[in-house]
Amino acid sequence: MIDVIHEINTTQRQVGTRTLAAGEARTITITRTYNAPIEDVWDAVTSAERIPRWFLPVTGDLRLGGRYQLEGNAGGTIERCDPPNSFAATWEYGGDVSWIELRLTSLSDDSTHIELEHITHVSDERWAQFGPGALGVGWDLGLIGLGRHL
What we know:
By secondary structure, the protein is α+β, with helices and mostly antiparallel strands. It has helices spanning 4-10, 38-46, 51-54, 124-130, 139-149, and strands at 12-20, 23-34, 58-60, 67-70, 75-82, 86-93, 96-108, 111-120.
């Protein structure tokens, strides 16, 4: 049984903005700490064999410059990769392109802090209609799934 209140309280969320070369973008950042070594967390978030165990089936070339596709969801290109600390990729869905950045920090031998930032250009109208949901929903469920997997 999942303690939903505990899961919600374990995750921190922040809404912000970021200036990109193409202009002002909106961001959502979701963070959480896992009782697992950084190498294990890194493997869970970058391994084609492990990603489907907690998120979605994935295909493609999961390395720098490679393209990936999450079944029934987004795909994109891996733009930066610094194992086991971070990676960045495009997030292409429904004709829109946004970006995700994942950062891992080892807090101890068996504790890792994860920070996922989703960055996108959102019109004022879309933001007024959907708020942070305009940047995508589901990251909470993904991080809960990752915690259950780890």
